[in-house]
Amino acid sequence: MNFVEYPDREFLTLALADRLAGDLAQALRQDGRASFCVPGGTTPGPVFDTLSGVDLDWSRVSVFLNDERWVPETSPRSNTRLLRERLLRSKAAAATLVPLHADAPLPEDQLEALAEGLAPHLPISVLLLGMGADMHVASLFPGADRLAEALSPQAPLLMALRSDAAGEPRITLTAPVLRGAMAIHLLITGAEKRNALQRAATLSDLEAPVRTVLANATVHWAE
Ligand SMILES: O=C(O)[C@H](O)[C@@H](O)[C@H](O)[C@H](O)COP(=O)(O)O
């Protein structure tokens, strides 16, 4: 793991957006297309704001979430809504959104169709992840009902998981899909998450699911 500490959050935002844009540009040069997998939650908004204005051939970039909360897009908890409002606008409006949500009561109802839509965009060229203070990434929560299966090398691309900490049911990319990314960046802020990351070193993957991507990740941190 490569740990990069920034003087403040604004510095982090600009430097990380620059790094992600560079990785995406490299993937476009190499493969003619790029896939960009991003987190929801509260931390990445400013990075999305900056990236959305970056000059890049966004028309050849597909964008999808690490995970989605099974709520309608009108909900303030919808990660898809966050993506549309903060990333897929300005220059990045030309990117293609690969959905991780559809209108159905349960994620299981749509899992197969969503996985079929996602498969052509894999492997992930550039992966950005957030992390909770409980050391979850995507919706791989410690204690989630099907966590062991989602961490296993044989896991399907997408799974529906439930855990008390998550609130609503989740749909999430699984560990092998996340680990298969060409470039992996983890964005965390604040002392609590930094301490959690240090603690993860002494725990198992089931206790600290973030471990599943750490070996090849660059961690970007600011207070
Ligand atoms: O839907 C989600 O909740 C996310 O994709 C999740 O994995 C997120 O990255 C972490 O929970 C950190 O969230 P914060 O940035 O809000 O702390």
UniProtKB/TrEMBL annotation:
It is an enzyme of class 3 (hydrolase). Pathway: Carbohydrate degradation; pentose phosphate pathway; D-ribulose 5-phosphate from D-glucose 6-phosphate (oxidative stage): step 2/3. GO terms for biological process: carbohydrate metabolic process; pentose-phosphate shunt. Pfam families: Glucosamine_iso. It catalyses: 6-phospho-D-glucono-1,5-lactone + H2O = 6-phospho-D-gluconate + H(+). CDD domains: 6PGL. SUPFAM superfamilies: NagB/RpiA/CoA transferase-like. GO terms for molecular function: 6-phosphogluconolactonase activity. InterPro entries: 6-phosphogluconolactonase_DevB, 6PGL, Glc/Gal-6P_isomerase, NagB/RpiA_transferase-like. Its EC number is 3.1.1.31. Gene3D superfamilies: 3.40.50.1360. Residues 8-221 form the Glucosamine/galactosamine-6-phosphate isomerase domain. Keywords: Hydrolase. Hydrolysis of 6-phosphogluconolactone to 6-phosphogluconate. Belongs to the glucosamine/galactosamine-6-phosphate isomerase family. 6-phosphogluconolactonase subfamily. This is 6-phosphogluconolactonase.
